[in-house]
Amino acid sequence: MAYELTGRVAVVTGAGSGIGRATVRLLARRGAVVHAADVDGDSAHEVAAEIARSGGRMVAHEVDITDSGAVEALAARVYDAHGAVDVLHNNAGIGHGGPIEETTLDDWRRLVAVNLMGVVHGVHTFVPRMLEQGRPAHIVNTASMAGLLPNAQLAPYATTKHAVVGLSQSLNAELSQRGIRVSALCPGIINTPIVADAQLRGELAGRRAAMARFYERFGATPDVVAEAVVDLLAGHQVIRTVPRRHVALGWALWRISPRLAQPLARLTPRLVSR
Hints:
9 strands, 16% strand
């Protein structure tokens, strides 16, 4: 089932790189009017210029999603321009890895501020407007396979991503009968700048290059995730894993027996950093 994107209005956070950048490109290519937000305004404007050269319609915004006032201002600008938003992709996020005893409280606060409260700010500012706009909408929140499975040395990151999955499921139960569908997007290993930009502690800090090589060798492209976002708009999955081969086995094992999933959780950091 195809989802008609021509003339639809989409808002994507974290749009300057990785999954967000691939998603705004695809949405624009399919005819959507895209508002692309990123804390790095230069990156957002760069992708906007690229899309404009190919005939697409995109507006770039420099927005820090940890600032609720900035997200409110973004929503006001978009609604002033169009009166409605059809797609909200709360995608911006940061990575973190390392032993829990070497993780600082500042690390925790930053992860929660970006990965969880950034999504909360998007929901808080856009949902009331969506409920009043007179046409359906879809919210896609980028979580992670770490939001479905346990992973040693990723406890803070996994905490935020599990929260995004739970938030998405609960919101969908509340809002889907009122015209707003909500989905949690759970990517596996994706070749994006997340490793290069992540805060790494302990022995993982010295293995950044090895981890980056692992992601380059085994990671799917961000374009695969962008296609999954568009697929979500056409159907109605509350949780979407992508690529499924990265997530399906571990997720099935965890649902059958959380105890049996623990050895795999302990092994993961060594696999990706060797």
